Please model this.
Amino acid sequence: MATITLSNVSKDYGGGPVLRGIDLEIREGEFVALMGPSGCGKSTLLRLIAGLEEPGGGQIHIDGRLVNDVAPKDRDLAMVFQSYALYPHMTVRENMSFALKQRRLPPAEIKAAVEAAAVKLGLTNLLERKPKALSGGQRQRVAMGRAIVRNPKAFLFDEPLSNLDARLREQMRYEIRKLHRELGATSVYVTHDQVEAMTMADRIVALNDGTIQQVGSPQDLYDNPANLFVAGFLGSPPMNFLDATLAPDGALVVEGQTLARVSPPAGPPPTGVASGAVILGLRPERVALAASGEGVPARVDVVEPTGTGRVIHLGLGAQRLKLFIMDTRPLAVGETVGLIVPPGAPLLFDPATGTRVG
Model:
């Protein structure tokens, strides 16, 4: 197990900065997800840790050792790629043992390591097959097994589940997390999928435009997002954002109606909201339908059954929002329903900067 420390790390390929002054400490035995949209710099950051790219500035330490100029093979890290990267002419056993043979380990030790990893991953009956005779999920398990047998200081996962269908992704999420608990190895996992980040990570590093937006536990980022980017990236359906006015008494006025109330500001409002203009963030599952004739009126535009509940698309004047409800009452398109926003549900953001202000 290893600690990984990044200090003011940057990267520029010549067309503008890809990473801008990244500071991050990954603790021993921790599972950290680097999460963000395509182009945010998460895969570049992983490649810098692995040594496949050189940083433009800053320092990378593994277990306290500066590794900026250390070759990838000498960093004692194992990578699992999206593309599996298996040797097609080799059997599963040969693929998993290849790196150990390169180290010239005793054959008995190699055999024991491969078979132990195969048991963990359910590959025992597939050891003599070649990759072409395996499913996508089996190939990914082989790629993981090849990494496990090396007993590295840390595992680096670069979107390893992107090529799998939804059911296999769910299965592999479970298997990767289970393996992490069993091995206790430091793991860094790159993903654009917020479900993967939320369900697997001890901590999430939310990246956008080459900068860290927020670091914390999945639940903390979900409940207490630092800005509009983090709030909108996590959650399905995503958070609603409404243009609102914050009155001195704490009333949040949307389209001329008081949709919710918050505690009145304790002091001068932050720069950018002095006029009372805010962006109101509401999680779809934290807004309720009122009893008939009560609540703030909104128009039903679309009803989407999901099996476990329903996503209701609503019109509130010129603005739109979604609800996720378990309520089974009949709803018709065009019908007017009432909304109730409970205390604690509203999140407030500065419209000028996107920063969380309440």
